Amino acid sequence: MAQPTEIERLPVPPRPGQARPAARQPGEARPAARASERRAELASFLRSRRERVSPEDVGMPPGPRRRTPGLRREEVAQLSGVGVTWYTWLEQGRPINASTQVLDAVARTLRLDGAEREHLFRLADVPRPATAVDEWPTVTQDLRVIMEGLDPLPASLVTARSDVLAWNGPYAAMFPDIVNAPVPERNSMWFMFTAPPDRNPIVNLDEQAPEGVAVFRYRYSQHLGEPEWLDFIHRLCAASPLFARLWATQNVAPPRPCEKRFQFPGIGPLTTRATHLDVAALPGLRLLVYTPVDDTSRDRLARLHARATATGGCSQD
């Protein structure tokens, strides 16, 4: 593995005539101060993880008497395939660049679990690596009970990339094409932009599409450079000229409750309020709940669910 040696350049004062950075708000930390604090946290974290791994844990002989517990820095460097000087600088909190591959190697050597690995990447200011499909969050039984207990409100558990992992009966009644799709296409963004008009119940797509893409870009900014995200965006741009046009606007917006209007054959129009609730125990996973805005919408949603149940079209995951 190639040893990274490039050192970050420190900020330099603006040249004459060059615009100065915007003034800080009262109480706001300087960027350099935040970076310094982050590197100090990184140094402390790496030392603590190194000290808990014994030579025996990684298949090395105990060796002579050790002054400190755990592995030595040079042992971590050797096992990770990086230079001793580089790893020492990383653990000392010096401003050096680190690649995804190198941090992955360090994480394996230090036997970091998922949360610790994500913490390492965040402290090193490196985009979090992609999560493989088989590493998606496991939907616990507690979450399933909560989601199913929301009936008659449609609810689903969704990843940051809008992959739908689980759902209750009312949600399946509203979106049968999503829940019955192959796993790679079981995604609400993919459905919004690729479903044929006669299969897409969203009425106010002209409002929901720009909002949805702006929020999607907001979530993507937390996963910059991740291959699975880039692949999904490229495929959706190719499949939907509307998504490609909206994506090119660079618009961004934080998630917020919004009204969504639907039209279902034989049922009529209904309007819901979509609310996203983050699952703290599983970062990136959120509970999406649709709440009818009036009695008419509530009654029509109940009829839709009853019809789907009677025809066997309301299967759950």
UniProtKB/TrEMBL annotation:
Positions of the UniProt region annotated as Disordered: 1-72
HTH cro/C1-type domain span: 45-117
Low complexity biased stretches: 17-34
Pfam families: HTH_31, MLTR_LBD
GO terms of molecular function: DNA binding
InterPro entries tied to this protein: Cro/C1-type_HTH (IPR001387), Lambda_DNA-bd_dom_sf (IPR010982), MLTR_LBD (IPR041413)
Coiled coil region boundaries: none
Protein name in UniProt: Helix-turn-helix domain-containing protein
Species assigned in the record: Frankia nepalensis
